[in-house]
């Protein structure tokens, strides 16, 4: 049977049965989607006439069917009156559907029993009147057992006044465990203004094998209407370029109170409230329940509750570019009693003038193509947020020229905006069976492993229609690595390629590949790119490790970056219901910073390793409400997510850029430097040592000359000129990513390449040690100038910026003058002498005055390590409950010969006498020495000096440390006391 014949039969079945196989208009995503609520062991609630529900005042019952009520079986034929069932080849008459007495104590009265006997079975309620101004929630009780191969689902099918199906919502398969469960679906709002009725479908669909012993029991079916609360803006995707344009509207419909109070609240990305919230009264208008077009509907009328509708707009007090949430709650007038749940909407304000890249490797995969946003909206959104590549599934039913044309037109519109489209070829079998399926397609290898005569007719119309516009094709969805591991894979993929593109189209084709899998040696690949994947999503550390272990490939390497997992566990001792709880605030800030930083670091790792494509596999995965714990680049409702602006800033600034390296900044901030295709140099940096109370605190100042036209751009895309101080830029760095744009390339490379011949300085006092400065001319022309090398004085505040040379160091150069040709390397000798210099790493500052096309003055920072060869030293301080201070030194020797050492501990600025210890024959085993001070209050926070001298040599080590002791518990004190 050909695919076209198969589809025609499927469409014929749809027409005959009116079940939910027909394609529906895209439905909105609800956070309270279909789900089993809980197990139930009690009897079913007593039947009531339509009206308000006793437990939830805001719900109004519009339909109730309890099958033990005689009014539902007036003629005693064991079939619920006005209900219908489906009859066709898949739903035969012998499948039993009937009202029967309940057979256990878990529910009383009668139930609707479905025994499909290996076939399919569907029961459909009478039409129930609904209105697009309300939302609807379905509740029922169900017991399912014996279902192994098929699936039981509940559907809500909304029809218009001509009884044409316009919208379908369905549950996930209900569990088959033989227990009574309370089932809830909703809330759902009719999307078409003509909808006036809904049908409830109780459906068992058989699988590849029928379930002969399947049994479904249904009881107490109830449909409620509830207020429809819609929070929206005038933007199709809530992304703005002007803070003045943002306006949020709350539209309410179906509320039971005429003038409730609507409260607006603006929140930043960490859930911190910004400015004063808004409070307005709705002034609702009564909703008239017209029945002019519903003469054939019996149910859903006659409630005694008047309902109201109205809307109010609010301009949030947004001052800067960034990501925001607006939370909206509705309350009874003059009280704090909420009506319904609080809703949230997310908004992003982006700087439209942010510098961008003409090309780049940043892309999105749209697994649902034009859902939740249609192609017409996506073509405007994608270029605005830095997307340069788009993957989307391109299968459509043969003969559906309208769908083929919409995909073609979308690809053309993207191409006009400089965006490449990659068509994803998937196994279409599930879509053919159920056009509304939400399941992932089967692995592509299984589909293409058969004879071309089987699979080619199912996708040939796609290649023929789209290959003239779409030049890039991927076999299988992201994460599908089903081809990996097969023998003669190069030949196999080559044969598939020749079948697909047999008319010589100029295309590029790729497959999924596992990070750790080898390739056929010595063979040219028959694919052009590899979409790399692991068994689970990788964070930045995992991605870095994967690159380190990845096998080389001649194909392009495309990688996936993913929003990191969110740990929503409240901190110990915090009150999760109090938004002002300091522990919760700190947790919100920390989580936000970690998510943004890890996401940006994933992008940096991909860039550093030369990834040719950087994709987000499902950008529409987040939630506008932080309480849901879902974060993403976009949200499931099509609004911006928490990570959209970090993605956009990276994509615009780093698209197509090449990694150069990093430099040593005065305060040690982590940094990564890239060169863009336009020649501009960008540095990304943050500082994990920076203390912070809010997400954008920047308490560390990196002060250095970077260039003449430097801009500082935060992760939200806002830019500013940095403060100038003594001819240097002041870059204020916190724990959030920061982008510095416009670095002087020659100076940046000079800083990266300068070094010392030896980074180790022997701890020998009064002896001149030889070293050398290693330089390379990175200015692109001959240069001259001078250099001054010195160790800044300690204890003067900002030591890295001190102009005063330390008296403990004497660094001299025979000739500080420099003269270097283009691209020349130079070794400048220098001499180092120590006098009471401290053990460990020591920052060294090199001041250059360089004459190139103009004069430059800049500094380079490096570290030299002072120590005894092969000897390590660690010091830790402890405080006992009685107030005694214990200083513990730990030493090891990795050299070939053992050494003897004399140790003297001085309490600086104290009347206390020095304490001494002797270390004999120190080898690789750790040697511990402990010093104890009684009544040590005067020592806390002070600096102590440990002097270590080699007994049979000239080497001497000075180690200074600040007393910041750890408090011991009783058991730790007992152990330490015994050791002392």
TrEMBL record:
Q: What is the annotated signal peptide range for this record?
A: 1-24
Signal: present as a keyword of the record?
yes
Task: Provide the residue span(s) of the region labelled Disordered.
Answer: 24-52
Specify the superkingdom. Bacteria
Question: What are the protein's UniProt keywords?
Answer: Signal
**Protein's UniProt name:** Uncharacterized protein
Organism classification = Bacteria, Pseudomonadati, Planctomycetota, Planctomycetia, Pirellulales
């Amino acid at each position: 049977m050909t695919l076209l014949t198969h589809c025609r039969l499927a469409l014929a079945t749809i027409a005959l049965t009116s079940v939910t196989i027909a394609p529906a208009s895209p439905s909105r995503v609800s956070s309270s989607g279909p789900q089993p609520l809980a197990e139930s062991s009690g009897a079913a609630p007593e039947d009531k006439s339509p009206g308000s529900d006793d437990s939830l005042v805001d719900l109004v019952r519009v339909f109730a069917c309890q099958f033990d009520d005689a009014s539902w079986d007036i003629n005693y034929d064991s079939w619920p009156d006005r209900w219908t069932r489906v009859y066709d080849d898949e739903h035969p008459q012998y499948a039993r559907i009937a009202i029967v007495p309940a057979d256990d104590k878990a529910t009383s009265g009668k139930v609707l029993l479905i025994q499909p006997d290996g076939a399919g079975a569907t029961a459909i309620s009478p039409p129930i009147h609904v209105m697009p101004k309300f939302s609807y929630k379905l509740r029922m009780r169900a017991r399912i057992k014996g279902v192994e191969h098929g699936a039981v689902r509940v559907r809500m099918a909304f029809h218009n006044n001509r009884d044409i199906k316009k919208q379908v919502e369905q549950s996930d398969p209900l569990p088959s465990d033989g227990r009574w469960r309370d089932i809830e679906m909703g809330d759902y709002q009719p999307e078409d203004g003509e909808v006036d009725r809904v049908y409830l479908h109780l459906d068992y669909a058989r699988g590849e094998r029928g379930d002969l012993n399947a049994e479904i029991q249904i009881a107490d079916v109830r449909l409620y209407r509830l207020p429809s609360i819609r929070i929206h803006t005038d933007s199709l995707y809530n992304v703005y370029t002007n803070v003045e344009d943002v306006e949020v509207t709350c539209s309410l419909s179906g509320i039971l109170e005429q003038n409730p109070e609507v409260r607006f609240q603006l929140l930043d990305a960490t859930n911190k409230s910004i400015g004063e919230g808004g409070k307005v009264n709705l002034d609702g208008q009564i909703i008239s329940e017209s029945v002019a077009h519903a003469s054939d509907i019996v149910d859903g009328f006659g409630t005694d509750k008047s309902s109201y509708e109205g809307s109010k707009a609010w301009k949030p007090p947004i001052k800067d570019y960034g990501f925001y949430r607006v939370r909206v709650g509705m309350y009874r007038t003059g009280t704090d009693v909420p009506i319904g749940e609080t809703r949230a909407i997310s908004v992003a304000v982006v700087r439209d003038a942010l510098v961008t890249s003409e090309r780049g490797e940043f892309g999105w995969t749209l697994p649902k193509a034009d859902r939740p946003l249609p192609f017409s909206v996506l073509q405007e959104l994608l270029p605005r947020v830095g997307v340069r590549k788009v993957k989307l599934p391109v299968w459509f039913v043969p003969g559906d020229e309208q769908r083929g044309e919409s995909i073609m037109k979308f690809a053309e519109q993207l191409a006009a905006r400089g965006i490449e489209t990659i068509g994803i070829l998937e196994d279409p079998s599930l879509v053919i069976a159920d056009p509304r399926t939400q399941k992932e397609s089967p692995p592509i290898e299984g589909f293409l492993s058969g004879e071309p005569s089987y699979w080619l007719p199912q996708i040939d119309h796609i290649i023929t229609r789209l290959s003239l516009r779409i030049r890039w094709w991927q076999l299988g969805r992201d994460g599908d690595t089903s081809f990996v591991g097969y023998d003669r894979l190069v030949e196999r993929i080559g044969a598939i390629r020749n079948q697909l593109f047999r008319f010589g189209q100029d295309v590029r084709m790729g497959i999924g590949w596992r990070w750790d899998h080898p390739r056929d040696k010595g063979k040219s690949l028959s694919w052009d790119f590899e979409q790399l994947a692991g068994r689970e999503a990788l964070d930045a550390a995992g991605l870095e490790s994967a690159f380190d272990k990845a096998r080389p490939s001649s194909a392009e390497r495309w990688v996936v970056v993913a929003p990191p997992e969110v740990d929503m566990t409240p901190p110990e001792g915090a009150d999760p219901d109090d938004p002002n709880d300091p522990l919760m605030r700190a947790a919100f800030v920390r989580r936000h910073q970690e998510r943004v930083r890890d996401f940006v670091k994933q992008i940096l790792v991909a860039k550093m390793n030369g990834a040719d494509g950087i994709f987000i596999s499902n950008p529409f995965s987040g939630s506008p409400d932080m309480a849901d714990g879902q974060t993403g680049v976009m949200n499931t409702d099509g609004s911006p997510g928490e990570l959209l602006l970090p993605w956009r800033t990276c994509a615009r600034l780093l698209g197509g850029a090449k990694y150069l390296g990093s430099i040593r900044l005065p305060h040690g901030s982590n940094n990564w430097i890239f060169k863009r295709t336009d020649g501009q140099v960008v540095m990304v940096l943050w500082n994990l040592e920076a203390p912070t109370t809010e997400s954008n605190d920047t308490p560390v100042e990196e002060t250095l000359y970077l260039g003449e036209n430097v801009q500082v751009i935060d992760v939200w895309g806002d830019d500013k000129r940095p403060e100038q101080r003594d001819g240097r830029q002041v870059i204020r760095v916190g724990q959030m990513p920061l982008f510095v744009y416009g670095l002087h390339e020659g100076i940046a490379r000079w800083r990266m390449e300068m070094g010392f011949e030896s980074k180790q300085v022997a701890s020998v006092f009064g002896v001149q040690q030889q070293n050398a400065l290693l330089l390379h001319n990175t200015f692109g022309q001959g240069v001259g100038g001078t250099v001054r090398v010195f160790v800044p004085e300690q204890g003067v505040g900002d030591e890295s910026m001190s102009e005063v040379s330390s008296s403990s160091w004497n660094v001299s150069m025979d000739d500080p003058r420099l003269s270097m040709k283009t691209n020349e390397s130079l070794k400048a000798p220098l001499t180092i002498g120590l006098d009471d210099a401290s053990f460990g790493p020591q920052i060294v500052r090199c001041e250059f005055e360089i004459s190139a096309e103009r004069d430059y003055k800049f500094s380079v920072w490096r570290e030299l390590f002072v120590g005894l060869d092969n000897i390590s030293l660690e010091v830790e301080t402890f405080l006992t409950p009685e107030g005694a201070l214990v200083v513990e030194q730990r030493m090891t020797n990795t050299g070939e010969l053992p050494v003897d050492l004399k140790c003297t501990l001085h309490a600086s600025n104290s009347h206390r006498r020095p304490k001494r210890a002797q270390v004999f024959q120190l080898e690789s085993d750790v040697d511990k020495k402990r010093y104890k001070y009684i009544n040590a209050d005067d020592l806390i926070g002070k600096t102590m000096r440990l002097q270590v001298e080699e007994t049979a040599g000239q080497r001497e080590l000075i180690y200074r440390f600040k007393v910041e002791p750890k408090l011991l518990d009783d058991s730790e004190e007992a152990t330490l006391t015994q050791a002392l």
